[in-house]
């Protein structure tokens, strides 16, 4: 697929059974993402008030060697390709990569509980189904982050040190998180397209429900590119 075809693919609203894309368990080590001239690493646990980051921080307090953003080595290579494709003053910023299974399960639980608190009368089943739209369930699929196959990223303007306006903050669990949601300004649409094009051109797959989430080698990627299998299975350090 060329870039235009990939962008069209990213607009798909197809309902997909990702479970059919089973992993061939490619042996590709987890490596730490490092700073380059065009790639910045700002872990979400170092962002004040970041809910997900708080869970990572708790995990790192018990696993101090985990203090870094890790991804599969092939994902790291493609991140650098995407970052280098951006023209100055733009730089790619990575906030998260691999996610420990314990953190994944905690996020799913908290997302479901938060939805119940804000929507009276919602059942546990309904809350879990809502949460699964934004957080993969390790009990029913191969979560991209747990596989070390996904990253959460955005773009900063290095001339102002300000992040581009994407129309919502990362990890919002509402319609504004959808890559092609309605109600965006022209600037916000342009910024999302800039990020999406850079990541797709580097071989990543986009996520319909999260504008900041991109993956390589997971079940979503396998569907996106018409592969028979995904590459990676869940892994912990």
Q: Secondary-structure blueprint of this entry?
A:
Layout lengths: L2 H7 L20 E3 L6 E3 L9 H12 L7 E3 H13 L4 E7 L4 H18 L5 H9 L17 E8 L4 E2 L22 H16 L3 E3 L2 E6 L3 H6 L13
Write the H/E string, N to C.
HEEHEHEHHEEHEEH
CATH C-level name: Alpha Beta
SS element count, helices: 7
Shape: globular
Q: What is the radius of gyration computed over CA atoms, rounded to a whole number of angstroms? A: 17 Å
Distance between the termini: 34 Å
Strand content: 5-15%
Class from helix and strand fractions: alpha+beta
Mean pLDDT: 94
- CATH architecture field: 2-Layer Sandwich
What is the number of beta strands? Answer: 8
Poorly predicted runs are none
Number of domains in the coordinates?
Answer: 1
The major sheet is characterized as: 6 strands, mixed
Q: Indicate the percent of residues in helices.
A: 25-40%
CATH topology: the name is: Muramoyl-pentapeptide Carboxypeptidase, domain 2
